[in-house]
Amino acid sequence: FIRGKVQNRFNQADQFELKIQAIEILSDVRDKLAKHITLKIALADISNEFIEKIHRLATAHPGKCALKLVVTDQADKMSIELPSKKYKVSLSNEFMEELAGMEEVNYKLN
Known about the structure:
Elements: E1 2-9, E2 12-23, H1 26-33, E3 36-42, H2 48-60, E4 62-73, E5 78-89, H3 93-100, E6 105-109
Parallel strand pairs: 3-4
Antiparallel strand pairs: 1-2, 3-6, 4-5
């Protein structure tokens, strides 16, 4: 991940240059910039087994990133956002891989 700014070149007002300010590893950036993770789940996919999977995942990877669930009902075209007050997760590679393996869940980092 590269952070920089575009500025005029020295003594050449009609040309620009990119001045690099910081270079970071992507996994570090994910941990620093992600404030919360949102899991989008269809109401029809929620079961006791699914709830246990999410609970095990959240307790196995404690961290600083807030966890939000968005439950959607396609039939009534409604959704509700449920922020977790109890669980915060770590956005480790293992957590992300386990989450990607869950077919019922779409997620986004904010």
